[in-house]
Amino acid sequence: MFEKLGIVTNIWAEEIANGARFDELMVEFGANGFKDMEVREGDYLRNSEFGQLIQELEIAMSVYTDAEFRTICDAVWTEQPYQTKHVTLFEAIAAFTKKASGLTLSYAMSHRWLSRAIDSETDTQQIIKAKKLAYLLCPERPRLRLVDLDTEGDIDASTAIANLKHYAALLPEYPMIFAVENARQTATLTLALAVAGGAKLTYDETNTYRADGTTVNPPAEFWSAVEMTDLTSVHFKQKTEAGVLSEVSDGYVNFRAIAEHLKTGHYTGDLLLENTPTAHSLGDALRSRAYLLSC
Question: Which of 11, 43, 76, 279 is the most buried (most CB within 10 A)?
Fold first, then answer.
């Protein structure tokens, strides 16, 4: 199971801050067997050379109809001819996709999906752009994940579910996996909202642990409630009293138990490593994979 471990790209944040290129890290990790990669939105990404391309692309999107943009995305990946008003931009994107050949890329961003939007039109356009980026990263299996890091306290379930249904219905001509992750809220609540809203769940058991090792909700409660078909991804990182670690080792999270749940349930989604960033993320990832394989 863990030999197919992938990564979330925010583990590269420190290296990119020190001048490393996003595409070179992508190629290096892919060559070391980390084939599934979730491109996680953030300042580190926007400050990378690939992030600059994304920002140019977001501006260029408005020039094309939804159908035209999808046609270009498909053509770039299949190396077919296409018409574009941004020749240099899409040549750079085509060069990136060649480097990403053999990898499965998805897209993830922070978004307040648990709360009512302050400006519904702006909110909608943010999700549309994100869906188009997710499609560009992998037209064969596009996936967009949202994580709400801001909403705390009591949740208005009807608002959260309505948001998810609205987001899932946007761009129906861009079929993709739409997912949310448990973050500040309990995994069981996030799962229930996701299922009701027509979304899949990305599960991160580390997020259920407080600093002292107690849990927001017991993992057993989640595993007794979840159906494997509701999961699209499982994230792996470790937490101790020192916080989230830079590589997976002993700590609060019982990875052997997680693996047993996934095997018993015949889980078919991906497994993604999300360590705390360091200047040597590949070494951290390789040691983390070796530790998980020992589980």
Answer: 11
